[in-house]
Amino acid sequence: MMTTAAASAGPSSSSVLEAFADELAIRNVLLRWCRAVDRLDCAGMRAVFHPDAVDRHGPFEGTVDELIAWISERHRSVAFSSHSISNIVVDFNGRDFNGSNLAVSESYVRTIQSYPADAGSSLAQLTGQPVSGSSAGFDMFSSARYVDRFERRDGPWLIARRTVVHDWKRVVPIPQDAPRPKPQWAIGRRDSRDPLFEELREIGLLP
């Protein structure tokens, strides 16, 4: 039996490009979350979620505003934070992605955070047990996954529901002689005075 060219051609180039653009947009949302949480940028954190989104973080579950308040309080004692995203897989709910408004992404997130010696209670929220025994503080290393439901509601793709899947954690004491960057170097900050924001202001992307 002969098939028509339209039936055998597969997805059109326009639908493939649309699918690529949608996945790229979702990846950008995931990366911008990492930037926002590591710089403690509350507006940036809020921007990746729909207003009615829910976050299931493990020790925390609640709304976007509640999540940001929880992070802002818990991270007061976190001197350094680095979230790195990888292994991003996005599944859309439409054949050939045509007209799709729902998607689920899974992404691996590796996190490094530094805590002072007196931040045991804050650290215990993520380890599930008290941490003590170092006068110089602690570094926490973790491997987890973000399982995110994305929705496009007459606008950009944003997170409607996030579940943080905890896979692995380690906490190690910081040595007294741990290396430190020199004061004259560009040193990362967890506020609007970070070198990143200085560059964004320089080119007019921030006030």
Automatic annotation (TrEMBL):
Record domain SnoaL-like: where: 20-163
Any Pfam family the entry gives: SnoaL_4
Highest taxon of the lineage: Bacteria
Protein name: Nuclear transport factor 2 family protein
